[in-house]
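Appendix B. Chain record.
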Amino acid sequence: MSKPANPVTLPLADYSPKHFLLAVVDRVATVTLNRPERKNPLTFDSYRELTDFFRACAMDDEVKTVVVTGAGGNFSSGGDVFEIIGPLIQMDTKGLTAFTRMTGNLVKAMRACPQPIVASVEGICAGAGAIIAMASDIRLAATGAKVAFLFNKVGLAGCDMGACAILPRIIGQSRASELLYTGRFMTAEEGEKWGFFSRIVTPEQALRQAQLLAKQIAEGPTFANTMTKRMLAMEWAMSVEEAIEAEAVAQALCMTTEDFARAFEAFSNKRTPVFQGN
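Structure tokens predicted for this chain:
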């Protein structure tokens, strides 16, 4: 379960994944789940390669943000029924635990990845696909997108890949409970109203809008953006008093960066700051 599916090489702009598409433009890496004939399901190997990719992002300073999307008008239908669920029936407890830890490692890698991640969600976004969207930092929905945490539909608990920890923090305990207990689809309109999606756009504009947002973030102060992402995650486990102290230290560190000085100089001269990420 732990072997790399396709060892990631740097820089990421030159890396050719086997189990998804990757393009790096304007310092934005776009990851496209690419099995459109099956609504982009995940396999053992794609789980591993995606995990390795997000871990490698920490080592590529040229990539400032990441966009995750799916090919063919759908985000992802989740774990492949025949390539994953079928084999799981034959595994013993040790093998099953290795698998569930491996899938959880993808969420850990996305949360640890220093770059903000924007999910562009079209069509079906279900099971592990819904988890990938959930684990992203920002989510945009195309009109007609539908999200479902389908685990109980296959006889499993809703506590999969961090869903019980992360989803309630996004949409609230009651709404998360409803989705996890029923496995029903959340519409794009519900998702926007509940805070799962930042906004709804047309399917034709979904990826473009996600990339524009990612580019806007990429043009900001890299160290400060990374600090924001880390504090958003770390402060879940802090009291308000601890969070305020942690933010004081984090902000003081940001004040030592050259981008902070650049911003002051630009504002003093009535110019827009051009951040360089240091």
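Further analysis of this model is presented in Appendix C.
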